[in-house]
Amino acid sequence: MLDALPPVTDKRLLSPIHHADDAGAVRLGDGRVLLATTDFFTPVVDDPADYGRIAAANALSDIYAMGAEPLGALNIACYPDRDFPLEYLIEVLRGGQEKMDEAGALLLGGHTVTDVEFKYGLAVFAICREEDLWQNKGAQPGDFIALTKPLGSGILATAQKADDLSPEGLKKLVAVASRLNRYSAKIMRSLEPRAVTDVTGFGLVGHALEVARNSQVRLEIATDALPLISPEVLAAMDERLKPGGLFKNIAAYADEVTVREGVPERLAHLAHDPQTSGGLLFFDAAPKWPDYERAFAAAGETLWRIGEVTRGRGMYLK
């Protein structure tokens, strides 16, 4: 769709749209970069405050994926005008505010729109030095591929909507999806990864392929190393509780993805599951892996090594 628009050629633009960076980046002319991003969506859980926390963490994540700290944000809320319980909106905004406070971001206001279905999210901005900026390019053959959050939020949210998710499964979903990527990013910043993105609606496969294309490399993902939010992710898939976005992702990336014969279908599907407020996906030289392991363990943050970068193009799920 964006290809139909005139290209932006201003030299101040650091992240062209076709690179699909996590946030727009504009040079300010003094060695600093302005970052801007926005994201909002319909409820993924029933509790309004939890929904607000998850939506805010998701929107803030794009800034962390670029190596920066959020400075400010604007609320975006869409809700039906007639007989809508404003108490619900207040709880959503309260949950979002909690995450902005945790992130140290300033709430500057926002905008509401009348809509048939409720939606909430943020427009977020940040400023950082250009030399500190992370982008979704620069991965090299021999690099490891690492992920900071487990997968399966799209599948679990679908199970919850079908009243087929246990209270413990829901608790795990909310805990993972509302966790700020701030803490993982802080650890990574000290070790200077080569390439970084976050995993959201396009699933692990879609966001990893953006790095592969921009870096002109091939990615090999070990499907048996993919972490799960809860064992209920696999149980839900066995009951065919999968989000529509999962199948859209499979169709969208089929030409670039090869699945090894014998890989269980549910693991291949897990790699395509659209995530809400997923983890950071990053790439760095293999000898540095022990440094990341030690640093994440010392901070009590989760980390999984899920693959490696090779020469070629596309992705191999093995």
Approximate strand percentage = 15-25%
Largest sheet: 7 strands, mixed
Report the strand count: 12
Q: In angstroms, what is the radius of gyration? A: 19 Å
How many domain modules?
A: 2
Strand order of the largest sheet: 7-10-6-11-8-12-9
GO molecular function, one term: selenide, water dikinase activity
Domain PurM-like C-terminal: 140-315
Domain PurM-like N-terminal: 21-126
GO cellular component, one term: cytoplasm
Task: Provide an overview of this structure.
It holds the Pfam family AIRS. The two termini are 32 Å apart. The strands form 2 sheets. The chain has a 7-stranded mixed β-sheet with strand order 7-10-6-11-8-12-9, with helices on both faces. It has a 5-stranded mixed β-sheet with strand order 1-2-5-3-4, covered by helices on one side. The protein is globular, with a radius of gyration of 19 Å. With 318 residues, the chain is of the alpha+beta class. It has 2 domains: 131 residues, 60s Ribosomal Protein L30, Chain: A (2-Layer Sandwich), CATH 3.30.1330.10; 175 residues, Alpha-Beta Complex (Phosphoribosyl-aminoimidazole Synthetase, Chain A, domain 2), CATH 3.90.650. The longest helix has 18 residues. The chain contains 10 helices and 12 strands. Strand 3, helix 2 and strand 4 form a beta-alpha-beta unit.
